[in-house]
Design a protein that fits this description.
Length: 227
């Protein structure tokens, strides 16, 4: 492979970024941070949320970095539209607001990360790469806010108002994942084989899975069994 091919490969691997902020100076500063990285490239810029959506329609982008406070359409509104328009597009919110309400709205809108402008030079590049790995990126204060919110909901009995699986389905799932047969599960739980099979069918349907292997993987992710 010659140098030209290597250069072409590197170019092909770049994360293509749509950057939206209504302040040209901020865009320029953020673009400098991103474009100096070998794997990142800003390929489109927008001055507001509506323009960001228009750019996403005409440019091939992998990641949108959106300011929250913008005219016409805010970054939050744009994020909701972009998530519907381009389901595979990753979204990061860039903001000067260390604000819990904005944080929760951003996550609901489909953003995979929340970066403060004040530390963008430190956090933004890592956040872009995390987004492309489908990993959430939150600044430390945001993590604290999420944990506090979760604990408040638990204390007020609001957490998981509609549990996806019933306790019995969870028991069956764990035993299936551990390799027990329907007959063994029936004996362990003092229920009929027919009931076990019905629970298995419900599990597959509820979780959108196809077979025992996928049920086992789900049980590992849910922490029901050791990997």
């Amino acid at each position: 492979m010659n140098d030209q091919d290597i250069h072409a490969d590197r170019h092909a691997e770049k994360i293509r970024i749509l950057l939206a902020d209504d302040h040209a100076l901020v865009r320029r500063g953020v673009r400098l941070i991103l474009d100096r990285e070998p794997d990142l490239e800003v390929v489109a810029e927008a001055g507001d949320g509506a323009e960001a959506i228009a750019m996403a329609r005409t440019h091939d982008v992998d990641l949108a970095v959106l300011d929250i406070a913008m005219p016409r359409l805010t970054g939050l509104q744009a994020a909701r539209e972009l998530t519907a328009l381009r389901p595979g597009l990753r979204i990061l919110m860039l903001t000067m607001h260390d604000n819990e309400q904005y944080l929760f709205q951003a996550l609901k809108a489909g953003a995979g990360g929340y970066v403060l402008k004040s530390v963008a030079d430190r956090d933004l590049v890592a956040a872009c790469r995390a987004a492309m790995r489908d990993e959430p990126f939150l600044y430390p204060g945001a993590v604290t806010a999420l944990i506090r919110n979760y604990l408040d909901r638990v204390r007020h009995g609001e957490e998981a108002p509609e549990q996806l699986l019933t306790p019995r389905e969870e028991e069956v799932l764990k035993l299936v994942a551990e390799g027990h047969s329907s007959k063994e599960i029936a004996e362990l739980l003092f229920i009929s084989v027919k009931t076990v099979q019905r629970h298995r069918e419900n599990l597959l349907h509820k979780l959108g899975l196809r077979d025992r292997l996928e049920l086992t993987r789900y049980a590992i992710r849910a922490g029901l069994v050791e990997p």
